[in-house]
Amino acid sequence: MAKKYEGCAVGIDLGTTYSCVAVWLEQHCRVEIIHNDQGNNTTPSCVAFTDQQRLIGEAAKNQAATNPENTVFDAKRLIGRKFSDPVIQKDKMLWPFKVVAGINDKPMISLNYKGQEKHLLAEEVSSMVLIKMREIAEAYLETPVENAVVTVPAYFNDSQRKATIDAGAIAGLNVMRIINEPTAAAIAYGLDKRTDCVEERNIFIFDLGGGTFDVSLLTIKDKVFQVKATAGNTHLGGEDFDNRMVNYFVQEFKRKNKVDISGNPRALRRLRSACERAKRILSYAVTTNIEVDALFQGVDFCSSITRAKFEEINMELFEECMETVDRCLSDANMDKSSVHDVVLVGGSSRIPKVQELLQGFFDGKVLCKSINPDEAVAYGAAVQAALLSKGIVNVPNLVLLDITPLSLGVSVQGDLMSVVIPRNTTIPVRRTKTYVTTEDNQSAVMIEVYEGERTRASDNNLLGFFTLSGIPPAPRGHPLYETFDIDENGILSVSAEEESTGNKNEITITNEKERLSTKEIKRMIQEAEYYKAEDKKFLRKAKAMNDLDYYVYKIKNALKKKDISSKLCSKEKENVSSAIARATDLLEDNNQQDDIVVFEDNLKELESIIERMKAMGKIEFVYIHTHLSLISSQSKVTRDIEMSTKKGCPSHAEAMQLKQPGAPFKCSGCKQMGFGPSYHCESSNCSYVLHEECANAVSIAFHPFFSKSNFEFHEKAPGKRTRYCDGCGKDVLGFVYHCSTTGYDLHPCCLKLKHNISDQEGRVTLELCQKVPSKCVKCKHRNVVERVKGWSYVSSGGDCCYHVSCVKELILENWKKGYFSQETNNSIGMSSDRENTQVALRSMEIVPSGRRSRRINKYTKIAVLVFKLVVSAIFGNPISAIAALVEALVTD
Fold this sequence. Notes:
By secondary structure, the protein is α+β, with helices and mostly antiparallel strands. One of its GO terms (cellular component) is cytoplasm.
């Protein structure tokens, strides 16, 4: 795969709360949303620092409640701003981490890392999130990633955009293009739903994310995407809804307990997490509870909130969203009736009240929810990255015409803002405007370039300034020509010229004062490499400690067995016991200060002891080290998978225990139903469970239809519904085997299916056939590619045909009816008891002769009649139902 994707550019949605990365797969002509190491398509934009290591993403967010002062989030609300900005001054009161003023009034985050105080810029925090997204992409593509398209809110100003580019440079990425988030979402929607749009179609993008809000109006025609207008608020999103809920419950806690928790970061963080969960629940429920144990000073907090109350708390913000929608349409001079599609993007767009208000604004128009709101922006960014990449031929031939979100101009006499390029102007663009001198014999002018919508120039954002000198003596009113030029990357160049002498001066706006210098970026890149080295060092030490603990545990258990200990002489026992004692002391002591070499040396000592004992034939440890090294050598598997009776759960240190067949379960690996032996996490309240095939998955698999060398194991397949299992025909959402020769994707449990299914006496009842064009008895669909993808089970008599997925469903249904016992056959999960097996087979209509069992029919009739009896007893006269039940019992 490395050569196939070498030099590939990715699209990154750098969000306030969550980030996402995607790539265009040329050979498949589609975008792939890349999942992280936890199998999720989005990763929290969160960075944490502890006494031992740096954490990014899921790991950082999971420990935020216990380490709030050193867990940084919302970096997108800091980037490109000044510390004196009123927005920063307001937000810093809500953040648990400390924000202080730095050089040139830049906000800096103060925290502790390994016992030392650190100060980080927002660009550095964002670069760490970008590094995480780059690593996620590299793990999937198996090749270094250097080029990326990064998205920003449409209403980001020039300083914020350039700060985002600096963050990419620190992360080691070449930011090919910065594009607006709603524009990227429009690309995703246009390619997914409007690829054949010939007539002009107006698309309205409503993007309400975790921390920013943008709306854009675009027209799509013949694969030309032209942005007409954009509006938004860089400080409005799901975080603001959470803040209002937190404030509401802080006041409630104060009213009930006479205690104010607003100054306690840990209590606020735990309450915020509970409010965030409640907000999500209220998107599909009308009420939910808020429960936080020992929230403050041992006092438990329990309350409830209704959807109506949530809407009341945030109604002001919801109405502000609608005002922004109206302003965008006004800027585009378009009536809302002319909008063809309203597309929802961003996680907060799922809020029912937001959808209700938006639908009411557009006079009841049905909102488009067909694209994933969390992935749409990264999808569009990946397409743009493919368009900008050299060597990619198989990519949609589209044209993107974006706009400048804010007006650009110069300061004139009286501190007035003279606009040269109005907002919502399509870029690239070049505009020239004539100005005059204000004094007689004026020899030079200072030209100040601003960005913004305020009338007073000083109230806008100063981008840069330069001087035009050498103006010949002349009365006031001498003309000067100033030209603004914006390229496709949004880079602004300003020039001024005096026509009579030809004197000219120009400036490319780089915001050198507010942007990071080359020296600062170089220093931050070196620090990023230092953090990366420290992270690797910590992981190496943690692995050595885990392996050492594993060896000690195995050897201790082995020595307890008499047949093993009796083979060892006293000296050998003494050496082994001494080595175990040293390793145990090392693990039990405060080992944080110990060097990695100490653990690795002890590990090597235990390994050498085991190897000598194996060579002497004293003991057989065939699965301690060999399987660990075998699995860890496979590039696709990121966690060690032990092929014995235990396998590590990714969320807990506890191992997973192999259990014999019981109730049906949903596999956490391949996301399919399971019926046979399974691995369960030994941690209490953990639902992580795996098929035996998923737990024992290796890089080479076998199936009767294919060569065993063609299949490669992927631990986490993409969660999008663009791939399906060629065995059962269901979506691939987890573990999967992929055949590089045929292109088949198979769940591990489908790959391991027996070629035939037999009863207890070995008689074949179902034969596995590939792509049999027959109607399934259960779902009545023909097994062809256009209708139902996958293989079929056909009875030996040829009179019954079942899809593999339908057979699984029938097994599950009959288990619920009690036709299967706890002791089951490993191949199909049917009872080992012959009579019950025949009952189960007949219930699924898989008897070779095609006969139906009266026993099952009787049970079915009884169940139906009992149900009728209960209903009749409640709502009417039960006499007729009782008579029918007695008649059925006598007849059968």
